[in-house]
Amino acid sequence: MAHVSLDLGSPVAYVSLDLGSLWSYPRRMQHFLHSLSVVIELMGHERRLKALVLLNALDTAATLVWVLNGLAEEANPLMAGILHRSPCGFVLSKLALVQLGVALLWRFREAPTAGHASWVLCLMYSVLVGWHLVHVLWFALL
Quick one: CA dihedral 64, 67, 73, 77, positive or negative? Predict the structure, then answer.
């Protein structure tokens, strides 16, 4: 299991893109997640919120491609129901809900909890979009 900790004294330059060996070695994965968390921390609250909107759009597009081609299923049961009824409704719902969350985090930006929440959400979405990219590469190599 990877442990993510934040140490602003560590070098930010160590972000490995060697995905083949990254998943093989838990220690490398740990370093990668640590470096990613430092980069996200240094982005600041406003940039993290902008990144959340972009990462959500990428996740939405990737989810549509996977699900509509029968390669995956939506993990969220509520969103899966919306997706199976209307892909357009899925896109609008997903983008609107995340945008609402981003607006709330911006509205309460002075609260320390908002900064922490944007950091956690940005890290989670970064890992999720990275997971999509790994699978795109995997399918491209088949």
Answer: positive
Q: Which of 102, 100, 74, 71 is nearest to 87 (CA)?
A: 74
DSSP 3-state of 132 = helix
CA dihedral 91, 108, 37, 51 (to 10 degrees): 40
pLDDT digits (tens, 9 = 90+) for 46-66: 888 999 999 999 999 999 999
Which of the 8 DSSP states describes residue 9?
T
SS3 33: helix
Q: Is 75 helix (H, G, I), strand (E, B) or coil?
A: coil
What span, in angstroms and rounded, lies between the C-alpha atoms of 132 and 21?
17
Per-residue pLDDT tens over the stretch 94-112: 999 999 999 999 999 999 8
Q: What is the pTM assigned to this prediction?
A: 0.73
Q: By CB neighbour count within 10 A (0-12 exposed, 13-18 middle, 19+ buried), where does 14 fall?
A: exposed
| Radius of gyration from C-alpha coordinates of the chain | 17
